[in-house]
Amino acid sequence: MITKKQVQLNDKILEELTVKLDQIEVSILNYGATITSLKTPNKDGQLENILLRYKDINDYAHNASYLNAIIGPTSGRIKDGYIQINQQAIHLDQNFQDKHHLHGGKECFAFQLFDLSYEESKDLVKVHASLNIKSEDSLYPGNKTILITYEISPGKLSILFQGESEEDTYLNMTSHLYFNLSGGKESILSQEVMIQADKVIEVDKEFLPSLIQPVEDMNLDMRKPVVIRELLTEKLRNSHIKGIDHPFILRKTDTIDASLYDPKSGRFMQITTSYPLIVCYTHNYPEDKLLTNHTRNEPYQGICFEAQYTPNPEVFPTLDQPLLKKGKFYQERTSFHFSIK
Fold first, then answer.
1. Number of C-beta neighbours around residue 270 at 10 A
2. Residue ranges of the domains in the chain?
3. How far, in whole angstroms, is CA 208 from its chain's centroid?
4. Residue in 184, 206, 201 with CA at minimum distance from that of residue 53
5. Domain 2-340 part of CATH 2.60.40.1910
6. Quick check: pTM over 0.85?
7. pLDDT digits (tens, 9 = 90+) for 192-204
8. What share of residues in the chain are helix, strand, coil (percent, to 5)?
9. Contact 68, 178 (CB under 8 A)
């Protein structure tokens, strides 16, 4: 079943689609192609929202946490807001620390109005969010067509990222979903995380991905499930990062790339992606805004698994680059499988 409603966001009238299918319910806002709610059952069959959600809908207008939105044209931080395409220097806006480029800067898809449409069949609903970008309106080269498709089926949410450009450009899209499998009743600290990665990218004093390290050398070995509290050592909490905010280079030898488990609710989420890397972020720097299930938005209330290409790509020429060639088709997929364990 699909329902539509209008939502007022400051001076804008937006559209929100809600898909109910078996034991999953997903609400999608056309602003930022943002998922405002994702409901799955706990071990007692109770359907609850497992994403962080602003209590005030107007907070999505400024959304400094990029809460549950689609990120692009690029994801992550780019040193000095500088990239090169075909030996041409391209200077992006410096929206992080007034020096570096973060999540596509002022062009970020989180703040764009998408056109929503949908297809519906018995056990599958596809919600399409489309966006057209003119070269003259972008610091990134090329007229671009972007299509995000949310595929909802029993026990599963998949996100298909597609795009084309009329010029060589950078494109590195991700979804910034903040999960909390307790349904917002507790923090994520007692939940168990797994990421199938042997290597992680260290983050420097300016939060820039800088150096590839073995996960065991960084005390970030998640190849077997580990309680999040055990990863957040005193040293890491007291560092400038204050938690996990690192790109993990996926092994790609396993059927599952990452997982999250909440023993109390019994919810178990498995993640698969065609992307080569996942940035894991433990909500270390929350905004001072209310969430629907909390009076205060505190650190470690949610965890992100941002599947993508290499952030800060100029520093890592040997890793997968976000360069999209003219006329080539961009297509990647990330899927979230939900069950009870």
1. 18
2. 2-340
3. 18
4. 184
5. no
6. yes
7. 999 999 999 999 9
8. 10, 45, 45
9. yes
